[in-house]
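All the exercises in this workshop are built on plain-text protein records. There is nothing in a record beyond a sequence line and a structure line. A learned vocabulary of local backbone shapes supplies the integers on the structure line. The question running through the whole workshop is how a given chain folds. Here is such a record, shown just as it appears in the course material:

***
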Amino acid sequence: MTTTYPAPGVYTPSATIFKTDGPKGRPAVDIEAQVKHTIFLADNGVTGVVLLGSTGEMVHMTKKERFDFVAGVKKGLEAKGYGDYPILAGVAHHGIDDTLEEIKSMKQAGAKWAMVLAPNYFASATTQQGLINWFTAVADESELPVVIYYFPGVSNNLKMTPDTFEVLAQHPKICGAKLSHGNVTDYAQIALNPKVQSADFTTMTGLGQLLLPAMAAGCHGTIDACSGIFPKLLVKLWTLSRDGKIQEAQKLQYVVSRVEEIVAAFGPMGVKHLMDKVLGYSSDLGRAPLNVALSDAQKETYSQAIADAVKLENSL
């Protein structure tokens, strides 16, 4: 397999859109709406999409649902002339065999890359060499190129050091990383490491609220949830950051950072509220336990930040 690398840019880790029907706590997936939303992202400059990441509630869906979901979105995109639009599939398992089986399924469904969450059940006992061993074993047999997904907030506060990324970047089938934390020092030590750069390794921040400083620290872009609601805003911020237009980028970064607070506070539920309020999707609920809508008071806290982002998005 010839490894391809995710192009620099803005990627959206999409929230899975559910219908309002289905078993209690387990609403049905709305593939038609997901295709429509993915086309919206493509038409507004988003480089690619992540399906079944943390925001996409991969852990709340069965294996069959995950396959049918990605395959359904891929088929829907092909029918609308978007068959080449890049799809990364989220993979989150602790065992090597389960991970490899999921990657195989995602390839068959139409994904181009597997975004693999670091194993974290035994986080306190896991060494850096153990992580190297695990990711190497996965990559050796993976049927898709692997993007390392490092998110301490959903990984039992697992630690992965820049030195570990340096080693893993040398693997021919490990082609990038999503770093979902706020340590810009780590960004720089990974993205600016000459050994990582020579490996054509794509380093992405998972936090759009840090896109400008992340780009200054060598990152190639972002995999950011707010880009699913404000794609033009995030793409413009990325472009200005890439081109070194710092003062212009700062103005956009301020607006982005403020609206990102709702995602930082409420995760997928914050994203779903934004999709409902800004894009008009009818359901702002996930699957249980993420099926409790934000209160009116919680929504009001972020209303001005949302309004400012909407105004800027509409001006671009």
In short: The beta strands are 9-13, 48-51, 87-91, 113-117, 146-150, 174-179, 202-205, 221-223. The chain has one domain: 9-315. The longest strand covers residues 174-179. The chain has a mean pLDDT of 96.
